[in-house]
Amino acid sequence: MGDFSRYKIGLFTAIFSICVFMITGFFSLKAYNSSRNTEKQFTASVQDLRQNIGQLESRIKEFEKLLKEKEASPIVSNLKGASKASVNEGNKNQKQKMVKIFQGSTIQNQLDVIADIDPNVILELHDERVKKNEMESELDYLRGISGEQRQLDKNKYDEDLNDLYRQTLSRRSGGNLSQEERQNALNELLDKYPDSYAAAKAVSSKALESVMRNNIGAAEEYYDMLVDVQAKKTDRVVLDNGFEAVPTVEHTLAYAYYRSGRTEDVKTMVKSLEENYSDSLYRVRSRGGPSIITGEEAIDRIYRITGIGEATKESP
């Protein structure tokens, strides 16, 4: 091979080596820069996370401090205690925002929300949840009482009583008889077992049903029967759903009287609720559907809606 050929081969090899070196260097530099950027982004993410954790820890400490102050307070709110002052509109909005965000949100969103929420709002949400659980437990207990009252009837009377009671039930309560058949069963129940718990529950249901049909006269007759039976009992008659019979009917009649313009009768019902059943539970309609409230809340609500005690009114 000639000298010129060897020269060309050597030159080509040198050029090829330089190209490989440059390409390798280019990709190495690119990889280095990319790793540097990744490191910077990771460092920034870690710093943001630490900052968020710090904010959360700060909020938790504020929350714990407020909780300790609240526990140390001599004024403890419960189902039979003094009415709580209503929160302002800003706190209500914050609670709604917090509940909405925490439903299916990311951890980052939750951290952002907690950082902006007043700790008092978190306390209020906690209190509302505790209160709701207490009322649900109370209803479960009362349903047990209702079952015990059925057993007392069974021990005192024959099986016909329970059969007659079931025949008085409306379709909404699981019954399947006509209005006439239900009324005949009720008449027989009252004739044979006038002092039974079943009779009291049946007339309670008929009173509530009569109000729904806008037949206040009939509702009052059934209410008087209920009061007569209750007067002979040492314990309060409890309906199958766990609500007490007399206050449930009185609460319903109060609104029926209000819609009929019978203000004095509204006051009579409210007086009975205040004096005898402020510790009972009540079911009311709300925007979110039926809800359970305490006796004091129910009475305050009647005052607001009817205006018999305050100037402020609202639609029932």
Structure description:
The chain is mostly helical. The protein has a domain at 124-306. Helix content is 72%, strand content 4%. It has 11 helices and 2 strands. The protein has helices at residues 3-72, 89-101, 107-116, 119-156, 160-168, 179-192, 197-212, 216-231, 245-259, 263-276, 295-306, and strands at residues 281-286, 289-294. It has a two-stranded antiparallel ribbon with strand order 1-2. Helix 2 crosses helix 4 (119-156). The radius of gyration is 36 Å and the shape is elongated. The N and C termini lie far apart (111 Å). Residues 73-88 and 311-316 have low confidence and may be disordered.
In short:
The protein has 316 residues and is mainly alpha-helical. Helices cover 72% and strands 4% of the residues.
Indicate the structural class.
mainly alpha
List low-pLDDT spans. 73-88, 311-316
Mean pLDDT over all positions: 78
Distance between the termini: 111 Å
Overall shape: elongated
Hey, roughly how much beta strand do the residues contain? under 5%
Please, how many helices?
11
Task: Return the string of H and E elements.
Answer: HHHHHHHHHHEEH
Number of beta-strand segments: 2
Q: Which percent bin holds the helix content?
A: over 70%
